[in-house]
Amino acid sequence: MNSDDWQDDRDSWTDDGPDPWDAYDQSQADSSVETTDNQWSDWQQRGYDTPGGPGHNHQTPHSGFGIASVVLTVFAGLGILGTLIGTMFVVVENPNLPEDDPRIIAIGLGIILSLLVAGIGGLLGLIGLFQSDRQKLFPILGCLFAAIEFGGVLGLVAIWLT
Length: 162
Description:
This protein has helices at residues 7-10, 20-30, 37-46, 64-93, 102-129, 137-161. It is mainly alpha-helical.
């Protein structure tokens, strides 16, 4: 038997039930090839992507606010981490610095600036959560990162004050 001759296999169906190939052929013969505007609008309402035709699921786009939120909170996290590493170097080098030392002021301003950027990122994430026609992955991640950063800094401040 030739492997390219696949249609001959359907003629030798031995099951007592109906031939599945005949049911397939009949379903293909009954379906209309021409599509109308009503079918396209019906496919759009069901969520199919019309340029690809029926059968291609349409996914809503990602939220621009959510993507901006993740980017800002990642940069804020890197800023917080860099500031904390810089703090370790300054404190190890000179453990008894006065409060009005420019290095201590720069460290405080770095933490405040990073928290401000994280707050803006968290707000953008909240805005992205309320967009009904967008995916929610990036807004959720942006809000989560902002909450972790705020919680981490507040935890470090609480440890430092005790």
